Amino acid sequence: MPVIFETAMFRAHWGFTRIEPHKNKKTGDIGIIEPNVRAIEDELANTMVQIEQGNWEIKSTLPLIASEYATHSTINKQMDQSYAFAYGYGAPFTDGIIFLCQRKTQVSEDEFAAREQTRLVQEATRKAERIKAFETEFPITEKRKLLGGTIYIFKGMEYTNKTIAEAERNEILARMK
Q: What is the pTM (predicted TM-score) of this model?
């Protein structure tokens, strides 16, 4: 029986909390931004249950870093004078984590052949989409000169003969196939 390796990503996201102190109109206010500690344990436990139930093996982890930026200002107007006070702060924090997991699975010959056929069809579709995108993004355009004659433009290069421009395009397309 053939053995295949499957790969999956699991994401645990817990966000952040902001602790706001009492607002003071004279000195402004300062907030504290920190990871949502209450949600971290729940998210990690749920993700680990999924990983263990699927018999996955963790190969890599990637922390997700986010940031929050806030500004505060205070304006004080009096009869003969006025002043303003402003400040800003930014806070990076760990927003979540991604687990890259892999598992080894034995499959039957028929299932392996079906998976291989699906993979080949997907690969052919991707190649066809790439070629179509290339042809629409880089067409061969014709430009007439003021004093007669025609030049052909392909990927920003000017060619005096359309056959040469098509040969260049066909060479690139052959490498893409």
A: 0.57
